[in-house]
Amino acid sequence: MRKGLTILVQETESTHMLSKRILIVDDEEGYRKVLSNSLTDLGFETTVAASGMDALEEMKKKNYAVILLDMKMPGIDGIELLERILKEQLFSSIVIITAYTYEDIAREAICKGAKKVIRKPFSMDEIKSCLNELMN
């Protein structure tokens, strides 16, 4: 009887950990640091990636509940990375973060499967509100 209870607790903890795991993909170090530090302080497990290729490598190691994805990056841009992520991991909620022409990018990103688009510069309140919405 005790073994079954232990397994149930382990499964619940592992599901809970996944729900708190966030991948931050941005080529700007300042944004990566601010997001990572702030979200870690809020109890999330964060991983950062400086490029689309780095993000793809990180996704081979772990599953993420939410991916915060910059739109404009050298190499693989946000839309291409969004498409590649959705082909491989349908359970991640993807939030595009952009400083560029908001309406066009927002429309394209949402049509391609992003859950939300947040404009730079953003406030941490916007990020927290978005995460609460996605995780509840």
| Shape field | globular
Name the average pLDDT. 84
Low-confidence stretches: 1-16
Number of strands: 5
Q: Portion of residues in helices? A: 40-55%
Order of helices and strands: HEHEHEHEHEH
Return the structural class. Answer: alpha/beta
Biggest sheet architecture? 5 strands, parallel
Give the strand order of the largest sheet, numbering strands 1, 2, ... along the chain. Answer: 2-1-3-4-5
Query: Whole-Å distance between the termini?
Result: 32 Å
Number of separate helices? 6
Please report which band the strand proportion falls in: under 5%, 5-15%, 15-25%, 25-35%, 35-45% or over 45%. Answer: 15-25%
Radius of gyration: 16 Å
Description:
The chain is an alpha/beta fold and 136 residues long. Helix content is 54%, strand content 18%. The chain is built from 6 helices and 5 strands; from the N terminus they run αβαβαβαβαβα. Strand 1 (21-25), helix 2 and strand 2 form a beta-alpha-beta unit. 29% of the residues are buried. Residues 1-16 have low confidence and may be disordered.
